[in-house]
């Protein structure tokens, strides 16, 4: 089951969603290296973090999978949003310095193909930062949050997947140690539970955050692959009758 754009926006506008965003932001900050004037792309639902981490970037784009839906972003200025198929990104080779994935890889039809496509568009020194639900965490077991949908990962599974796609994991972090309860009295203790969980039960975090670097010394096999998707432009007229020009 994929997360819908309406459900994602609704979750992050709630109190529980704002607390989750704050926790994930702290985890991303611990692995986010400073790259001045970088070209940054977010894939999935990354808007809360693009606003924060994209302030110093030269260019920032928000790519949203077609199965999720898209919204206009940013609120002011020209739109930097695109609706994409994650295995065929509309970018040329080596054109991006960093890509951030949130609510993306766990919903990919083929995570390996998605990572290989990201490898293609990243620059030789490119980096990828991924946030995925933790298979051992409690957040992956409840569907009232976006982290309870899709395919959760363990650290070992994510590490193996990245290495198969020619990425080298360089930094790890965890977030969401408090329970995904909507009760206000539970959310009042989220700070205490977050700090306690980070020390006592780190393997049961709600999400795993990893930064990986593009590996160049090993080549990828080149194979012609037909797309598994058929794209229909929704704004083009369908079934319009063809009118012939009168003969002179």
Describe, in plain words, how this protein is organized in 3D.
By secondary structure, this protein is of the alpha/beta class. The chain has 7 helices and 7 strands; from the N terminus they run ααβαβββαβαβααβ. It has helices at residues 5-12, 15-31, 47-53, 111-121, 155-164, 184-187, 190-200; strands spanning 39-44, 59-65, 81-84, 96-102, 122-133, 167-175, 207-214. It has a 7-stranded mixed sheet, sandwiched between helices. α4 (111-121) links the parallel β4 and β5. The termini are far apart. Mean pLDDT is 87; it is low at 234-246.
Structural category: alpha/beta
Distance between the amino and carboxyl termini: 59 Å
Largest sheet: 7 strands, mixed
How many strands? 7
Range of helix content: 25-40%
Strand/helix succession: HHEHEEEHEHEHHE
List the helices and strands and how they pair.
Elements: H1 5-12, H2 15-31, E1 39-44, H3 47-53, E2 59-65, E3 81-84, E4 96-102, H4 111-121, E5 122-133, H5 155-164, E6 167-175, H6 184-187, H7 190-200, E7 207-214
Parallel strand pairs: 1-2, 1-4, 2-3, 4-5
Antiparallel strand pairs: 5-7, 6-7
